[in-house]
Amino acid sequence: MIATLAFYLFATLTIASAVLVIFARNPVHSVLWLIVAFFNAAGLMLLLGAEFIAMLLVIVYVGAVAVLFLFIVMMLDIDFAALRSGFSKNLPFGILIALVLLAEMVLAAAAWKAGPVTEGAPVAASQPNIEAVGAALYGRYLFPFELAGLILLVAMIGAIVLTHRSRGDVRGQKISRQVDRDPKEAVRNLNPGVGEGMKL
Amino acid sequence: MNFAAILPEAILTIGAIVLMMVAAFAGRRSAGVTSWAAIALLLAAAVSLIGPPQTDGALFGGLIAADGFGAFGKLLIFLCAAVAIVAAHGWFERDFEHGAEYPVLILFSAVGMAVMVSATSLVTLYVGLELQSLSAYVLASYRRTDDRSAEAGLKYFVLGALASGILLYGISLLYGFTGTTQFSGIASAFAREGTHSLGLLFGLVFLLAGLAFKTSAVPFHMWTPDVYEGAPTPVTAFFASAPKVAAVLLSVRVCLDALAPAIDAWRQIIIFASLASIILGAVAAYGQTNIKRLLAYSSINNVGFALIGLVAGGPRGASSVLFYMAVYVVMTLGAFLCVLRMRGEDGEPLESMDSLSGLSQSRPWLAAALAVFMFSLAGIPPLFGFWPKLMVFQAAVAEGLIPLAVVGILGTVVGAFYYLKVVKLMYFDAPGRPFRKARTDLEGILILLAALFVSPLGYLLIGPLGTLTANAASSLF
């Protein structure tokens, strides 16, 4: 019962916040709604008994991807003075969202204890989630997994090829010259007399 | 696990990573070395295809197959990749633009395409396709200082990402409604259903739409002329050849393996895509003034003909598609190698059709070669380009698809017009400004070989090539 309730709550909120991602006028708000959507999706994963993926969603998507989005959005030309002016006005609404998220977390924990809604992927009960994911990735799906790594490599090469330019006016680090430097030649001890100053 | 079966991919991957390290430490000076090393790697990968015994059936738990069909596709892909590297070597200005990363990206793209043609699971299909696409986006905008090149890359990337989304949506629907990502499992699910559920049909349509984008079949062709025009010419030559082979062969495997029991569902879609590609490719090319855009429409047109063979289905249809793609690749690469020689007095690349006028007087050999490729692409009988068209039409007629063949033949006649326009420009118009003398001999030899292949001498190859394609196609069934 509680699990079904939790499912409908998470599902409705996922869809609602996903719709708001699109309809929000302010791109920063869009990203914040996206974070709400990620949280709710993580809750759905939890209900399926996939704790590991749920945690990954929170850590990777909320913690890294969404924050990166925020950085990019912040670089856009947005009038932040107009944004900040509504802070106190929007505060109650913000608190409301925070409370809803908190309630969801409590509910998720309770629902998780109550057992999964549906039969998820057939995983042996004794096998922890992470082990099952690892066995699939490094066993059966090793080939596409390695290829996915290659795709990331190509993305890195591509980013460098398209943005890197060698500039002549930059002094590079020459490690061999640094190592070859002799302290006896590099340092001079002088003892100038009073009022004579330093001659270099 | 049988690692011998993925030997070509392994050679290319490890080689590309080593070359990347060379490029990183030796800098742009190493462009020549990495290019030749990449060609050697492609050759080694092609040789390794002949070496190990072809294992029938799926490997890695049904994720890929190392069969004759895949091997034939890989041979064509490696050939195209090698030609693209050779062409780039003479085309990019040395030191400045020809980064050592170019052959590395081509190699990664080739790995992606090799995985595409041997994929027997939706997971491998998607991963291979994405590896190929991502390399292609970077290659399209390789001349980043050129606005058109950057635009081509961006356009390709945005539309390609959308197409990937559509494809993934189809894949997830198919997985959801069949419970498996493997082609054999999907086929048995379709066979079990009898009348197909709406979910399966939706998945099938989305999957085919995503694949049609990659083959640039109408109505998913919009990006092709812009990307082909904007990308550097050697990259365009690559795009018009290797990814087409990979995407068409992938479509053949998906349709004839995974979706075989649903032939009534996909056949009408492919018939529409094929006829629309033939007609639009022929009609829209009419007003083009840029030779690269013209060849882009020519590639759309040719994919339409190849899809006729897919519509016919069966071993005969599949082998006609393989034959078609083999000849198409040679004709297209030859035409692009000729375009690469179009350079003004100061060495700037020329692309307008007008610059070709009177070429027969200033550069008779180049004009003759380009004329051979144009006649062959038009499918005019004494040349070899006629034979694969005949084969796909024969396959279609044998399946009783006579209206399809008739419309296709009409499309050939309409399409012949603009190919002949190029020939008319070269032979009957007043000569324009002469081209600069070309330096690279290797490209000249490649043009000569390609021209000999598509000349009537090519008919000598019908026997061996026919056996090869028939064997390759039979491994699908």
TrEMBL record, chain A:
Residues 173-200 are annotated as: Disordered. It is a multi-pass membrane protein. It catalyses: a quinone + NADH + 5 H(+)(in) = a quinol + NAD(+) + 4 H(+)(out). One of its GO terms (molecular function) is NADH dehydrogenase (ubiquinone) activity. Its main location: membrane. One of its GO terms (cellular component) is plasma membrane. Keywords: Cell membrane, Membrane, NAD, Oxidoreductase, Quinone, Transmembrane, Transmembrane helix. InterPro entries: NADH_UbQ/plastoQ_OxRdtase_su6, Nuo/plastoQ_OxRdtase_6_NuoJ. It comes from the Bacteria. The chain crosses the membrane at residues 6-24, 31-50, 56-78, 90-112, 141-162. It is found in: Cell membrane. Its EC number is 7.1.1.-. Residues 173-187 have a biased composition (Basic and acidic residues). Belongs to the complex I subunit 6 family. NDH-1 shuttles electrons from NADH, via FMN and iron-sulfur (Fe-S) centers, to quinones in the respiratory chain. Couples the redox reaction to proton translocation (for every two electrons transferred, four hydrogen ions are translocated across the cytoplasmic membrane), and thus conserves the redox energy in a proton gradient. This is NADH-quinone oxidoreductase subunit J.
Automatic annotation (TrEMBL), chain B:
Residues 119-414 form the NADH:quinone oxidoreductase/Mrp antiporter transmembrane domain. Keywords: Cell membrane, Membrane, NAD, Oxidoreductase, Quinone, Translocase, Transmembrane, Transmembrane helix, Transport, Ubiquinone. GO terms for biological process: ATP synthesis coupled electron transport. Its EC number is 7.1.1.-. The keyword Oxidoreductase applies. It is a multi-pass membrane protein. The chain crosses the membrane at residues 6-26, 33-51, 71-92, 104-129, 156-177, 198-217, 269-287, 294-315, 321-344, 365-388, 400-420, 441-462. It is found in: Cell membrane; Endomembrane system; Membrane. InterPro entries: NADH-Q_OxRdtase_suN/2, ND/Mrp_TM. GO terms for cellular component: endomembrane system; plasma membrane. It catalyses: a quinone + NADH + 5 H(+)(in) = a quinol + NAD(+) + 4 H(+)(out). It comes from the Bacteria. One of its GO terms (molecular function) is quinone binding. NCBIfam families: NDH_I_N, PRK05777.1-3. Belongs to the complex I subunit 2 family. NDH-1 shuttles electrons from NADH, via FMN and iron-sulfur (Fe-S) centers, to quinones in the respiratory chain. The immediate electron acceptor for the enzyme in this species is believed to be ubiquinone. Couples the redox reaction to proton translocation (for every two electrons transferred, four hydrogen ions are translocated across the cytoplasmic membrane), and thus conserves the redox energy in a proton gradient. NDH-1 is composed of 14 different subunits. Subunits NuoA, H, J, K, L, M, N constitute the membrane sector of the complex. This is NADH-quinone oxidoreductase subunit N. It comes from Sphingomonas rhizophila. The lineage of its organism: Bacteria, Pseudomonadati, Pseudomonadota, Alphaproteobacteria, Sphingomonadales.
